[in-house]
């Protein structure tokens, strides 16, 4: 050691090692490892299973007094399992019996699945052949080791259909797209499905039928005829005919018009036909409740037929009482019936005929058919024009009545502008009507 000036004490040597007494003359004694004699337990013989049994895949549990290191949790990594270390100075122990070797199953690398779906961008193509080639590349992923994407294949095919593939084009076969090398796609074929002819709806009878089918055409002809003629083909009208082509020769020169009169004394088949005609008349005139259909002793029904098709109908009633009807303001056309008034409640007249309903087919309203059938009914009752009254006319019926009676009542009701005669029941009914008629000495 170096001696510093001014002092007889030796300076201490700085070191980072542990201090050891170097003056010790005794040698350190070596420690001997204590050996624990282990008792070896004989294991039972291993059970053998058939190769086809599922138990052959599992190893038997090792029975020992001390736990084996391979008994650890299978989920723990092999790096975390460490053998207990012994001092480096102690030699390895030699056992009298051979050591028990445990077989550890070889752990396969974990298969990492991707949770993010992978899709391919399908470019919009105008050419169908390029699109089929693109589909072929997609389908070949199964053969190139990308089988985990095979679940997305239907979605890709749907995207490919949206990318410009026509609806009626057939899908490419698997033989064409399975080999992506070299082969050109086959020609696209178009499959035309023929569901049959166009279905038409008849505007008259509202029957749906196919003109290309003979059965549909025959069914439509039968139903159309029944709808138009109302079942008049099997009815004999000779006993109820009152005129043939006498009034409507100018309307239908090729097919004469037949006029029939139906009442309570007519044959049953004729009355049934007249009832079907009244049902259609009530539907078009607004009698939706089904009333005014029966034919009784008060009503007579006159029907005009062209080729057994009813084109006009009038329902008339026998002798009754009527009251004059006049208009408040004749200079304002288009007025409704509500703006008109009766001349006087005491001015009541007895008439031989009253028009209850008057109907003309819409295709025959320009041929003066309503005027002709009204004159035919008036001739059957033998009355003049001023002796006819109307009951509850519609707006169109009121306009027709005003034109029919124009100038007829000027000499009978001067300076009153009488438009028509209305049925008394439209104003007074029941007991009041009876009292009024008795007071006027009409009954």
TrEMBL record:
UniProt cross-references to InterPro entries, sorted A to Z: ESCO_Acetyltransf_dom
Entry GO MF terms: protein-lysine-acetyltransferase activity
Domain N-acetyltransferase ESCO acetyl-transferase: residue ranges: 350-407
GO BP: mitotic sister chromatid cohesion
GO cellular component term, pick one: chromatin
Compositionally biased intervals (Polar residues): 1-26, 52-76
Biased composition (Low complexity): 77-102
Region annotation (Disordered) ranges: 1-120
Top-level lineage group: Eukaryota
PANTHER family on file: N-ACETYLTRANSFERASE ECO (PTHR45884)
Protein name: N-acetyltransferase ESCO acetyl-transferase domain-containing protein
Species in which this protein is naturally found: Rhynchosporium graminicola
């Amino acid at each position: 050691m170096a001696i510093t000036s001014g002092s007889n004490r030796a300076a201490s040597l700085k070191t980072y090692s542990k201090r050891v007494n170097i003056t010790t003359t005794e040698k350190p004694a070596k420690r001997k490892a204590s050996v624990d004699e282990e008792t070896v337990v004989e294991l039972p013989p291993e059970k053998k299973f058939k190769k086809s049994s599922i138990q052959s895949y599992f190893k038997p549990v090792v029975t020992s007094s001390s736990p084996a290191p391979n008994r650890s949790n299978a989920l723990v990594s092999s790096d975390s399992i460490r053998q207990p270390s012994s001092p480096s100075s102690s030699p390895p122990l030699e056992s009298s019996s051979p050591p028990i070797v445990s077989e550890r199953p070889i752990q396969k690398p974990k298969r990492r699945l991707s949770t993010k779906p992978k899709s391919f961008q399908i470019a919009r193509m105008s050419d169908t052949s390029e699109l089929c080639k693109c589909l072929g590349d997609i389908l070949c992923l199964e053969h190139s080791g990308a089988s985990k994407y095979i679940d997305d294949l239907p979605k890709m095919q749907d995207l490919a259909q949206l990318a410009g593939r026509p609806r009626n084009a057939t899908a490419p076969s698997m033989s064409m797209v399975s080999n992506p090398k070299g082969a050109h796609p086959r020609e696209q074929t178009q499959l035309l499905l023929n569901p049959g002819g166009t279905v038409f709806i008849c505007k008259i009878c509202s029957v749906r039928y196919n003109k290309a089918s003979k059965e549909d055409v025959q069914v439509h002809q039968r139903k159309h005829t029944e709808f138009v003629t109302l079942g008049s083909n099997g009815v004999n009208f000779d006993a109820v005919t009152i005129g043939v082509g006498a009034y409507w020769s100018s309307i239908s020169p090729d097919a004469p018009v037949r006029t029939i009169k139906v009442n309570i004394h007519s044959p049953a088949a004729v009355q049934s036909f007249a009832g079907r005609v009244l049902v259609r008349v009530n539907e078009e005139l607004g009698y939706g409740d089904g009333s005014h259909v029966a034919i009784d002793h008060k009503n007579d029904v006159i029907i005009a037929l062209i080729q057994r098709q009813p084109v006009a109908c009038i329902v008339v009633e026998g002798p009754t009482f009527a009251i004059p009807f006049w208009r408040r303001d004749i200079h304002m056309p288009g007025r409704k019936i509500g703006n008109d008034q009766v001349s006087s409640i005491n001015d009541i007249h007895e008439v031989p005929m009253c028009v209850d309903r008057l109907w003309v087919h819409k295709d025959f309203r320009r041929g003066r058919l309503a005027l002709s059938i009204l004159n035919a009914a008036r001739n059957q009752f033998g009355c003049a024009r001023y002796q006819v009254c109307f009951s509850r006319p519609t707006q169109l019926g009121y306009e027709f009545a005003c034109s029919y009676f124009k100038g007829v009542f000027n000499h009978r009701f001067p300076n009153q502008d009488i438009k028509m005669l209305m049925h008394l029941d439209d104003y007074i009914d029941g007991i009041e009507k009876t009292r009024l008629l008795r007071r006027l000495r009409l009954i």
